[in-house]
Give the backbone structure.
Amino acid sequence: MKKLLTIVLVLALCLACFAGCGGKKDDATADDGTVTIKIGGIGPLTGGAATYGFATEYGAQIAVDEINALNSGIKIEYDFQDDTGVAETSVAAYNELKDWDVDVIYGCTTTAPCVAVASETFADRYFQLTPSASSPDVTAGKNNVFQMCFTDPNQGATAANFVKDNSLATKVGVIYNNGDAYSTGIAQGFIAKAGELGIEVVAEQTFPADTTTDFNVQLTACKDAGAELVFMPIYYGPASLILQQADQMGYDPIFFGGDGMDGILSIEGFDTSLAEGLMLLTPFNATSTEERTANFVNTYKERYGEVPNQFAADGYDCIYAIYEACLKIEGLADMDHAQLCEALIAVFTSGDFKVDGLTGTGMTWQVNGEVSKEAMVVEIVDGVYVQK
Amino acid sequence: MTFLGHLVTGLSLGAIYAIIALGYTMVYGIAKMLNFAHGDVIMVGAFVCFTVVSSLELPPVLGIILAVILCTVLGIIIERLAYKPLRQAPSLAVLITAIGVSYLLQNGAQLIWGASPKSFPSMFNFGGENGISLFDGQLNISYVAIITVSVCIIIMIALTLFTEKTRMGKAMRACSEDKAAAQLMGVNVNQTISVTFAIGSALAAVAGVLMCSAYPALSPTTGSLPGIKAFTAAVFGGIGSIPGALLGGILLGLIETFTKAYITTDLSDAIVFAVLIVVLLVKPSGLLGKYVPEKV
């Protein structure tokens, strides 16, 4: 009896396997010729980085809803899995999406999980577009992985160029999180470029985690070394503490941040006067009056009760980039995920594929997966971003 | 002058560790269990205070009182539901449960208050100033730091007196020495341990409010790292010893700050823990801990 049961179960399992192997688009093409693309997102929805995961999930959700309302012949089905910001969990989340019969991977939000998932998608041939994992390691050696955000070293170099071109300072201090690949990547890019440009880095200070609370020592070191500008390529949470502690000790250099600083003005309860004069590199300006951005910000606020940051905007742009690339592909209905992957790679690297989004106009991608878009430096004046 | 500045920073940071460590050591000393959820109770306390002061715009005093009350209740509930059924279980099971409770609180807080960081209101401003400025503004001592150090010392003295002088304190010490014997002598062990948790959680609320006043960033994971550091401080000073928690906390804060200032910021945590290892090698029960040999 037991044996029989085993045989039946094994047969059932085999059948299930075969069912999974069948042509995927058979069930995805509706009678009216509409093709359904399944986009699976991965990012942290719990843990310390949850706030960024939610931003990428929500931003993309808005784009998905807009596209589905267009009735353009392509429908998007969207699922978002929690990876808690951990590489191992992220691969589990990816496997979950594969079981769901995903076509394109959107994510991961943070770098370390993205590197882990990227090597899987490279082997399995899924197209992957990350909104915010900005390390060059994410795309290195993997032709199927593309980024919507700037790479870290580029961002650091751009910041150094900006400091030099505008003669903001000759002596700078750098404070970064050496437990975080993003922060370290930008800081090293900045320091290397600053050296070339003759900007003197008088203090290089680190802290181990974004939950660090005390920055008095780091600030004192910058102050004593006479830094006129403090570059801090870190997230806005710890940055708010640095601004507050600098204010308390009466130190008032120019503070300069990367795109992770975006969001500092919308921290609940934060005294925005502390951020006055803060400069940051960001591809996205939530206070912009440009119609598409304004609509996005309004929808986001209505639905989720927060001002979207650049993570959300990058997420929104990712979905549109995938959608617009799919529009260019012929025979979409008959493709499985691997064929779709090659077709999308061809479109993304074709050179004449340009995407207009919230974080840039005419964005193109290089063969190595990096995005080419304009970096924008903004300064906070009277509590709003003013473009420099 | 820079040295004095670092000294003040180290003392303020150390006082925060100390006040959290007091809660750890209290619970460990009496219930003989590591309450890893302590750091997260701190976070809940801070969130309650934040909600009352920032969102409901009520006076800070009310915020602190409500935080203490809610955390006490929370502590009792956690003890009842998660730890009491495991009273006879091996200590490892209780430890794992405590870690589970910690995650439960973190994710629960995320559901209620959201994942994005909040900025804690500054509650200790007197006359528009948030600190004392000495030597023409070269040295700033914030009121929060002064209050934290004072509160820390008051709590330490109060706890010591409580455990030494009162009936409940005597019962606690009895439970700490030998639960079974205490029970035979007519001490209600369960109730005593519940009271310990209530006190520990009330302390956590105070620690949360002070910590977030000093470092006003608040998110569901705020309590985890300070919780671990404070646990280290408690072990450093001799876990179970109330004055030891204060000493351990202050020393940890000072070592951390001076390491960052004079050695390197890259390795500050590594050096702090290296010092801890050396101390434990020389004095296995911590600085002020009593070495109690296991009787067979």
